[in-house]
């Protein structure tokens, strides 16, 4: 299915995603369906005929029915973000929950760099949490898109954990927490991958992501199969496919890796990498070059571009074809380092 972006904030990565090392560290209850389902990368699945020992099987988080005599007013879950960041918007998806969805939801954020357990986070005083999404009505089998407005104080704060309130009980399929990564600048010294999502990079443009998003190509680690990279549709007309990455911050570049691992019969024939400066000027980093299927390729940056300062790179593939990973190694400029520190 073709990926559709509904709101501007969804252009930013889902910092809670399990593929980025997010973790659901606490839930008040998970009697019917496990809390870990909340942050799975794939879209929620549903088989109407699938039942287990506890009833209908749901691809989400589902709690038991609360009764008035029980302690507490509602259920909640706490997610440690895989990558801390500034939150732009939240998606609360109740897909497939039709008679068992919560009437209301709310989302809170906190910044806790100490290694706290789920129980310790659950016991934090209320003033340690700040509101990301106010208490809001919810519907069944519906994607609820909550954008944090420009200028809202919460949008400027760094978040390491979020708390999802499910009021009073029920089921939620997925929680997506979209934002701009705010990495610790102490770990970004020397030569680093400035195109890595965990270091603050993001995809800003793509010609085609019919099968999967190029955001996966700048994710953690190596892909484990073809589904873990970027795959576009077969091109039947003129032109070529491409995507653009906003680097972690302004950088000088040294070398790149273009990895077509697992793309055996649908890798590009050629690639080209272009650097883009803050004022929009372009420079060739890697000229149009043949690449092979199922191969890690490393290319040195062209000498003429090695001292220039870039904020974006664009990868062109000819005429189409997918790849597993793009890595761009370089050093932050003084301005780039200052920008990273400001987010932190």
Automatic annotation (TrEMBL):
InterPro entries per the UniProt record, alphabetical: Allantoicase, Allantoicase_dom, Galactose-bd-like_sf
Main EC class the enzyme belongs to: hydrolase
Gene Ontology terms: biological process: allantoin catabolic process; purine nucleobase metabolic process
One Pfam entry name: Allantoicase
Keywords annotated in UniProt: Hydrolase, Purine metabolism
Allantoicase domain residues: 22-181, 200-332
EC number, as in UniProt: 3.5.3.4
Pathway(s) per entry: Nitrogen metabolism; (S)-allantoin degradation; (S)-ureidoglycolate from allantoate (aminidohydrolase route): step 1/1
GO molecular function: allantoicase activity
Catalytic activity: allantoate + H2O = (S)-ureidoglycolate + urea
Entry's family note: Belongs to the allantoicase family.
Protein name: Probable allantoicase
Species, as recorded: Corynebacterium heidelbergense
Phylogenetic placement of the source organism: Bacteria, Bacillati, Actinomycetota, Actinomycetes, Mycobacteriales
């Amino acid at each position: 299915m073709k990926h559709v972006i509904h709101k501007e904030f969804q252009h930013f990565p889902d910092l809670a995603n399990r593929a980025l090392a997010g973790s659901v560290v606490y839930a008040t209850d998970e009697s019917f369906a496990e809390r870990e389902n909340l942050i799975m990368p794939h879209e929620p699945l549903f088989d109407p005929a699938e039942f287990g020992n506890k009833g209908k099987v749901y691809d989400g988080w589902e709690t038991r029915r609360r009764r008035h005599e029980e302690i507490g007013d509602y259920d909640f879950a706490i997610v440690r973000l895989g990558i801390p960041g500034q939150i732009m918007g939240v998606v609360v998806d109740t897909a497939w929950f039709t008679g068992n969805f919560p009437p209301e939801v709310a989302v809170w954020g906190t910044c806790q760099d100490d290694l706290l357990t789920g129980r310790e986070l659950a016991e934090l005083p209320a003033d340690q949490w700040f509101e990301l999404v106010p208490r809001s009505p919810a519907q069944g089998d519906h994607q609820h898109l909550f954008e944090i407005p420009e200028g809202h104080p919460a949008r400027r704060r760094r978040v390491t954990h979020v708390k999802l309130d499910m009021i009073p009980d029920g089921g939620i399929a997925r929680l997506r927490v979209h934002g701009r990564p705010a990495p610790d600048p102490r770990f970004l010294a020397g030569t680093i991958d400035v195109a890595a999502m965990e270091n603050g990079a993001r995809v800003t443009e793509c010609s085609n992501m019919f099968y999967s998003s190029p955001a996966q190509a700048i994710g953690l680690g190596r892909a484990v199969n073809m589904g873990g990279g970027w795959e576009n549709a077969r091109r039947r007309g003129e032109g070529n496919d491409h995507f653009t990455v906003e680097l972690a911050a302004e950088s000088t570049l040294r070398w790149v890796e273009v990895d077509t691992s697992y793309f055996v019969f649908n890798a590009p024939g050629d690639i080209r990498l272009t650097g883009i400066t803050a004022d929009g000027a372009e420079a060739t980093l890697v000229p149009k070059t043949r690449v092979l299927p199922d191969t890690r390729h490393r290319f040195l940056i062209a000498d003429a571009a090695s001292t220039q300062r870039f904020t974006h790179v664009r990868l062109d593939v000819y005429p189409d074809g997918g790849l597993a990973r793009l890595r761009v190694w370089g050093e932050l400029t003084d301005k780039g380092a200052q920008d990273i520190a400001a987010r932190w």
